[in-house]
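Lab manual, section 2.4: Encoding a predicted structure.

Procedure: take the sequence of the chain (120 residues), apply the prediction step described in section 2.3, and record the output as structure tokens. A sample record is shown.
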Amino acid sequence: MLEHIERDLISEIHLEPIQAKVYLLINTRGMMSVSEIAENVGIEMAEAQKTAADLVEKGALIDISEKFEAMHPRFTAVNMYRRMCEQKNIKFKQNKTVDNIGVVLEPLYDDARTGSSKSG
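Recorded output:
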């Protein structure tokens, strides 16, 4: 399931593969420091820092006291898509694939933050 979402983030929102991996990691596991991101994804700290900073700029993550947290996926997926459309001069319109990213990630996002899933 997450592999499909990762492909959609790359194809529809034009995230780099490493950005998609980090975005999904923080959505599904919760807030993380740069060192935790690097360890979980298997990348150097500098690359983890750059990737997280790039995702903050794209509106996917927020920086809270040297840790990175994802905002709610229903909003972030659409907002990242809207920003990508603006940057590439593409007419923004509803995209069911992008909408579905938020729908699929929402229970995982909630579970990572509350320890209980609505879907279970």
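Check your result against the sample. The mean pLDDT is 94.
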